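Progress narrative, Year 2. Work on Acylphosphatase from Litoribacter ruber advanced from sequence curation to structure prediction during this period.
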Amino acid sequence: MKTNKRIKVIGKVQGVFFRKSTQEKARELDVSGWVKNEPDGSVLAELEGHRHAVMAMEAWLKQGPEKAEVDNLIIQDGEEQGHTSFEIIR
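Result:
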């Protein structure tokens, strides 16, 4: 069963290769969607895939890459969008 979540990652998450690392992890877990920087300094990601893969991705986002400092996640359930890859939105 596929699921869709939109997750806002709050903390020191820009300028630490967060988007690229998120893309690499998503591809490793076979999760599709996108990730982008937000003007407020957060990172926003839309994740779509099998429930367990999206849950693993959510757990990874709580830590992020080595230099990130994640303070909080804001998670919203979404509707399946039919994403076929995981992209960085600039």
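Helices lie at 18-29, 51-61. The mean pLDDT is 97.
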